[in-house]
Design a protein that fits this description.
With 499 residues, the protein is of the alpha/beta class. The chain is built from 16 helices and 20 strands. It binds nicotinamide-adenine-dinucleotide.
């Protein structure tokens, strides 16, 4: 782990690339500001605008004004504008990526990659067919299923993958004919503001509004009468608050929440291949991924081999500041998360029978670094197993038979994802049906294409995003029932667009 920190302390200022909030097509400077911390140093390096309630009202009003004209644009036009925004992100990937590394911590290469992936998300989502459907026209009655945009969407995002998550919300809201007010996490506001600044001359005024601010800004949005839907990505605890707050105005709500995904290695698994996939998932983005593997269940006979294979991979990771080209893992994103993972490690050290096989080092130099860590010997009620660690520390647990493994995998309120690692795909597909999770992957963990719906079972979510199902959750279904149409009139009766 690199322990050196540049002592020259940048004076917090508003970065050029995130000069203001995007409201009604204009960059609006803040009236008040909050500090943004560089997690590699633990020090403030920039200021971000802290939106007032009046600024939120202005953004919602702009989004409402922009809505009628935007929903009247053809699907092709909306797709074309969004793809141009994606192309702009690809052009600006380096500077936006640099800002993302400064505030989020991930290695620069990954940050630039995230901006490119955000553009890919736009392409993938706007390739989906959301046109209306004909349920039947049987000579007697004709039933059409149409989908109409909801109006103004409020998007609220977390700090782990801020650019991708922001653009997934922009693409879903706008492609389906809605307008958007978007709020990034106060811990990573700058990269989202920079994205807004980059696409401000491409998206029509008022269709995308981006405001930074604290948690109170999120709460104002979820109760705002001018917002019709909330698309929220974040923790279970906040998700519960969002749902409660949205109830008064009957907002449509989609919640993408936390997880405690199990990876279940079966007795016939290829141990090296399983270790590859599990380590990649558990340590990506410093373990701060909703659908990362967060606990591993392995048959007793394979336990030691798998632990050794995971430890080998963990020890190859180079932890250090994201700006150092040699770092393959950055710091945790914030002090609270760092303290949480450090405490989980303290609890492991205090647990008889538990052992840190590799890693375990926690930096004490102001940056939020924790080495990739593999832990064995914990019971299922240990906090590291029971809770969402959201950090690069993975517990490996052994089991005796598959029924027991499935029951232990399900013994949680979380239900985001799960994976099975085996050579017997047919058997794994059967077992998948017994797992209480929104997604079950066989011989991989995560990595869905955009036509695949994503979301959690149980406390891990509410509804689905992405895929046609996800896009339709940004729309109100409307059934149009009429007497059957004659053959020649039926040919062009269904509008080709989702209106
Ligand atoms: P968080 O819930 O603390 O914050 C998320 C967002 O909600 C932030 O923008 C925050 O300012 C805002 N917020 C806070 N209080 C609010 C309130 N009362 N009303 C409205 N908004 C409010 O989550 P986090 O710590 O930023 O993110 C980490 C969590 O996100 C983890 O649990 C992770 O698993 C989850 N996550 C889930 C997915 C998914 O797709 N399922 C993806 C990424 C992250």
């Amino acid at each position: 782990m690199s322990d050196t920190i540049d002592a020259s302390r940048p004076v917090p200022a508003v970065p050029d690339q995130a000069r203001g909030m995007l409201i009604d097509g204009a960059l609006v400077e803040g009236e008040r500001f909050f500090e943004v911390i560089d997690p590699a140093t633990g020090r403030a390096f920039a200021l971000a605008p802290d939106a007032t309630r009046t600024q939120l009202d202005a953004a919602v009003a702009a989004a409402r004004r922009a809505f009628p004209a935007w929903q009247d644009r053809s699907l092709e036009e909306r797709r074309e504008i969004l793809r141009r925004a994606g192309a702009r992100l690809r052009e600006e990937a380096e500077p936006i990526g640099a800002l993302l590394t400064s505030e989020q911590g991930k290695p620069l290469r990954d940050a630039i990659g995230e901006v490119g992936r955000a553009a890919d998300q736009i392409d993938g989502l706007t390739a989906l067919d959301i046109s209306d459907q004909l349920l039947r026209d049987d000579g007697r009655e004709r039933i059409e299923i149409r989908h109409r945009p909801l109006g103004v969407v409020g998007g609220i995002t977390p700090w782990n993958v801020p650019v991708v998550l922001a653009m997934v919300k922009v693409a879903q809201a706008l492609y389906t004919g809605n307008t958007l007010v978007l709020k990034p996490s106060p811990l990573t506001p700058l990269s989202t503001l920079a994205v807004a600044q980059a696409i401000a001359d491409i998206v029509p005024a008022g269709t995308v509004n981006v405001l930074s601010g604290g948690n109170d800004l999120g709460a104002w949005m979820t109760s705002h009468p001018g917002i019709d839907k909330i698309s929220f990505t974040g923790s279970v605890e906040t998700g519960r608050r969002v749902l409660r707050s949205a109830a008064d105005t009957f907002k449509r709500v989609t919640l993408e929440l936390g997880g405690n995904d199990p990876a279940i290695v079966l007795a016939d698994a290829d141990v090296e291949a399983a270790a590859d996939g599990i380590a990649r998932s558990a340590f990506a983005n410093c373990g701060q991924v909703c659908m990362a593997v967060k606990r591993v269940l392995v048959p007793a006979a394979l336990h030691d081999a798998l632990v050794e294979a995971l430890a080998r991979r963990a020890s190859r990771i180079r932890t250090g500041p994201g700006t150092n080209p040699e770092s393959t893992m950055g710091p945790l994103q914030n002090r609270m998360q760092f303290n949480k993972v450090a405490e989980l490690l303290d609890e492991v050290r205090a647990t008889p029978g538990a052992r840190i096989v590799t890693g375990g080092t926690v930096s004490s130099n102001g940056g939020y670094f924790i080495e990739p860590t593999v832990v064995v010997g914990l019971s299922d009620d240990a906090p590291l197993v029971r809770e969402e660690q959201f950090g690069p520390v993975i517990p490996v647990l052994s089991y005796d038979d598959v029924d027991e493994a499935i029951a232990r995998a399900n013994a949680t309120h979380f239900g985001l994802g799960a994976s099975l690692w085996t050579r017997d795909i047919v058997r794994a597909r059967d077992l998948a049906g017994r797992l209480e999770a929104g997604s079950v992957w066989i011989n991989r963990h995560g990595g869905n294409a955009k036509d695949v719906p994503f979301g959690g079972a149980k406390y891990s979510g509410y509804g689905r995003e992405q895929g046609v199902v996800g896009l339709h959750s940004y729309m109100e279904m409307q059934v149009v029932a009429s007497p059957s149409l004659s053959a020649e009139r039926a040919a062009d009766a269904i509008p080709p667009l989702a209106r």
